[in-house]
Amino acid sequence: MNQRKHALELLKDVGLLVCKPVVTTIDNLVKLSSTGSVPFTDVYAYRRLIGRLIYLTNTRPDITFSVQQLSQFLDKPTIAHYNATIRILKYIKGASSLGLFFSSSSSAHLKAFCDSDWDTCSDSRQSVTSFSVYHGNFLISSKSKKQGTISKSSCEAEYRAMTTVTCEIQ
User: Fold this and answer.
1) Which among 5, 10, 64, 82 is least buried, having the fewest CB atoms inside 10 angstroms?
2) Of all residues in the chain, what percent are helix, strand and coil, respectively (each to 5)?
């Protein structure tokens, strides 16, 4: 199951249908924050683009974390945020037909994976929890979200991530 048509329409609307693809969704060296860059003038266009990317995450868990990171800045996006969004679109260009695969020969056991990124948000100092839940080989749930409270250590952030995925499984 994929949203190739939606991905290609999105690339066409933005004018990136013939762009050079990249292999990662986000540059790990760039720290996104609400300050430190020139404000992006067309806030409505940025919000619309992020909304379309959020819709695409239904079948593309590989872009979920990056889109979540950029969706934090919907109120005051900057040029850096817009450039990071363009990078996600360039990644999609290189992998527009990726999606979810549901095999008929999959076993029926539950698997869950979680991780946290301690002290990720430079504005609020909150950590980010990400998890994926599988039934056999089928992805049934995936999420990436800022934790509600500030963790004092990476260990505490990991425990919060495990709590979140355990609640999702239940």
Assistant:
1) 5
2) 40, 15, 45
